[in-house]
Amino acid sequence: MAEETRVILHGRRLSPYVKRVEIALKIKGTPYEFVEEDLKNKCPLLLKYNPVHKKIPVLVHNGKPLVESFAIRDYIDETWKTGPELLPEDPYKRAQIRFWASFLHQHFFEAWILMSKTKREAQEKAIKELYKKLKLLEDGMKDLFRDGIPSSVDNKIKVPINELPVAKELHIPHEIVVTSVKLLRELALKSSVDT
Ligand SMILES: N[C@@H](CCC(=O)N[C@@H](CS)C(=O)NCC(=O)O)C(=O)O
Question: Where would one find coiled-coil regions in this protein (predicted)?
Fold first, then answer.
């Protein structure tokens, strides 16, 4: 049962794992505070809350820390019953959504990271691989949501994913994404030269 609550999300706005949690909170209409973490200089609280992986996101609900974005998403779904369910009722559809979410997590992000860390032929290869995975993901999504995504406001209305109010609200401007990706690439290339 949802009780009087204080919800704090430790993260970074650009992290896709943090986005997963933010989207879940927004869909449920759960208010939360956002604490922007500096991953190069992790604060003692983050290390205390996530001593195993020392990663974001961390969600703190009434003082209790939760880690790992999928586990947090499920916790949010099971705790705040006031908003719409995050996963469909049909077990087959749920399983399909879980499959694609884990594909995105394990394969797509991995290919994306490889692409941003490599140069020349290795990068060309990584880009091809990334496009292949993107195509698989897109086809999977089209199949799964033939008529669009159910609106979080009215489950019967189907809307394209970019039109969802929550997607618009959490949208990050293209220039900011590009600048951050360039920075990440510089850092990744520098650390691969240093090692
Ligand atoms: N499996 C984790 C992955 C989280 C993750 O990789 N977070 C990154 C930011 S996008 C992080 O905290 N990196 C810091 C580090 O690796 O030290 C989840 O789903 O929550």
Answer: 120-147
